């Protein structure tokens, strides 16, 4: 057995005293982590699978007849896409705070509400009604990913967080593949009960989400302090580990606190890092079926050809993020994702004559975006501290970063089908912006760490080792060291 620091959400500080250390039985800890992996990640993975299917199915419905039936001429489809993210922006932070207050079971409540709006998308008669249902869907979903990300970070230490989160995130990636397959099957229901195929896509997937939400209510774990699936020494060990993670069961929040957290430049650097890659991920999920159809594939074939793109992106994302976690380094891997993403976007901008080459570009876009996206979220959230500080950071990065859909939905112009030169060029510019902000964030955090180390060494900065003070101050604590 060995000693381990309990300094929250940071690299261990050399100034810690023995009172801030705990004895760890590594074998017992490995058994505990395996139990957490089985109990927490699978249920959240299933919930996120449904979440992403419901969010992205509008792209599949478009080429299954919705565009013609609802007269989605000009930029009408794009409006239906970006208004979803307006709901994210309006409700994301308040709903995440409510999630933190009322607990993880609220994830299932969110699912029930957004599933109703998804079914509503299949019943609309005009494109204006579709805009309203998509806006409501965005509001209902706005805190789901942030809440799930917070819950994962509540049970796992800083060194374990990224790997678990990226495995959770693969549900969203694989959902793109599953969505194409399911949509190709549902398309055969065209005309059943007088409903077009695109309507059945929304209706069936919404009903499935309701069923999953009800079933998972009993399996979504509570916050660690209310954990019922661990007992005795295992629960005690888990609660000790929580102090090294990002959950604080006793903190409170005020409007002043929220505004203070939102004034931190590092959170907004994270927003821009995330926006730079999320815009391209959103473009892929919302417009890939249309792009592939423009390459000469039939509607059904276009749905099927999205599957290997998503599966490859998921595999590469998991491998790279696990290596990043093992090496305890984030910056270089974000840049790796950017480089792969940029290569794919350049292929699409150049628009070579061979359809196979442009299809290969889709693989690079998926791999690059899905490497950088989880790193941008977890890297900054780890460095935010714990409790509401982390919850606000995650919600801000995810919900404002998702604003990339505002961009993608308005630069993939109908008149440019299938080249979409403006859309891919804009995506390349935003990816470069994300890489630049990652560099600024890395340098800024490195300089703060160096200044604090120098202050400790010279005696100018007095260490404050009380755990309560550490939780309260977060990254402002003098012992805090940013993960790079």
From TrEMBL:
Principal cellular location given in the protein's record: membrane
PROSITE patterns membership: MFS
Membrane-spanning intervals of the chain: 79-99, 111-127, 139-159, 165-186, 198-220, 307-324, 331-347, 359-380, 392-414, 426-448
Keyword terms, alphabetized: Membrane, Transmembrane, Transmembrane helix, Transport
Domain of life: Eukaryota
InterPro entries: MFS, MFS_dom, MFS_trans_sf
GO cellular component: membrane
Location in the cell: Membrane
The keyword Transport appears for this protein: yes
Membrane topology designation: Multi-pass membrane protein
MF-aspect GO terms: transmembrane transporter activity
Residue ranges constituting the Major facilitator superfamily (MFS) profile domain according to the UniProt record: 40-453
Gene3D superfamilies found in the cross-reference section: MFS general substrate transporter like domains
PANTHER family given in the database record: PERMEASE-RELATED (PTHR43791), TRANSPORTER, PUTATIVE (AFU_ORTHOLOGUE AFUA_1G11820)-RELATED (PTHR43791:SF52)
Protein name per its UniProtKB record: MFS general substrate transporter
């Amino acid at each position: 057995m060995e000693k381990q620091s309990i300094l929250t959400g940071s690299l261990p500080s050399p100034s810690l005293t023995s009172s801030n250390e705990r004895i760890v039985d590594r074998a017992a800890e490995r058994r505990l982590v395996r139990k957490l992996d089985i109990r927490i990640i699978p249920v959240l993975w299933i919930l996120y699978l449904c979440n992403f299917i419901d969010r992205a199915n509008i792209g599949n419905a478009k080429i299954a007849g919705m565009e013609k039936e609802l007269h989605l001429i000009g930029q009408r489809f794009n409006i239906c896409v970006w208004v979803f993210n307006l709901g994210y922006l309006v409700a994301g932070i308040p709903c995440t705070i409510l999630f933190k207050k009322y607990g993880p079971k609220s994830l299932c409540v969110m699912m029930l509400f957004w599933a109703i709006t998804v079914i509503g998308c299949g019943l609309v008669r005009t494109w204006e009604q579709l805009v309203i249902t998509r806006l409501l869907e965005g509001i209902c979903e706005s805190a789901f990913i942030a809440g799930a990300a917070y819950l994962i970070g509540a049970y796992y230490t800083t060194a374990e967080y990224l790997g678990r989160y990226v495995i959770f995130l693969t549900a969203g990636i694989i959902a793109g593949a599953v969505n194409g397959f399911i949509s190709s099957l549902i398309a055969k229901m065209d005309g059943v009960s007088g409903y077009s195929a695109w309507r059945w896509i929304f209706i069936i997937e919404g009903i499935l989400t309701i069923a999953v939400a009800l079933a998972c209510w009993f399996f979504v774990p509570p916050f660690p302090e209310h954990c019922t699936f661990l007992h005795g020494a295992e629960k005690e060990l888990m609660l000790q580990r929580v102090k090294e993670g990002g959950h604080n069961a006793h903190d409170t929040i005020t409007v002043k606190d929220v505004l203070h957290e939102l004034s931190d430049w590092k959170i907004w650097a994270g927003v821009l890092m995330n926006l730079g890659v999320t815009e391209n991920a959103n473009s892929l999920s919302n417009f890939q079926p249309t792009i592939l159809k423009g390459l000469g594939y039939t509607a059904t074939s276009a749905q099927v050809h999205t599957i290997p793109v998503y599966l490859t992106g998921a595999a590469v994302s998991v491998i790279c993020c696990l290596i990043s976690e093992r090496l305890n380094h984030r910056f270089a891997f974000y840049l790796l994702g950017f480089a792969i993403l940029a290569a794919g976007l350049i292929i699409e901008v150049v628009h070579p004559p061979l359809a196979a080459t442009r299809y290969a570009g889709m693989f690079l876009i998926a791999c690059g975006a899905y490497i950088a996206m989880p790193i941008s979220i977890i890297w900054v959230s780890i460095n935010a501290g714990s409790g509401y500080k982390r919850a606000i950071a995650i919600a801000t990065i995810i919900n404002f970063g998702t604003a990339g859909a505002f961009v993608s939905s308005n630069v993939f112009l109908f008149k440019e089908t299938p080249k979409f030169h403006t859309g891919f060029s804009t995506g390349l510019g935003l990816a470069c912006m994300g890489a630049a902000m990652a560099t600024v964030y890395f340098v800024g955090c490195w300089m703060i760490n160096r200044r604090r180390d120098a202050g400790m060494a010279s005696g100018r900065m007095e260490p404050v080792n009380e755990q309560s003070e550490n939780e309260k101050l977060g990254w402002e604590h003098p012992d805090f060291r940013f993960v790079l």
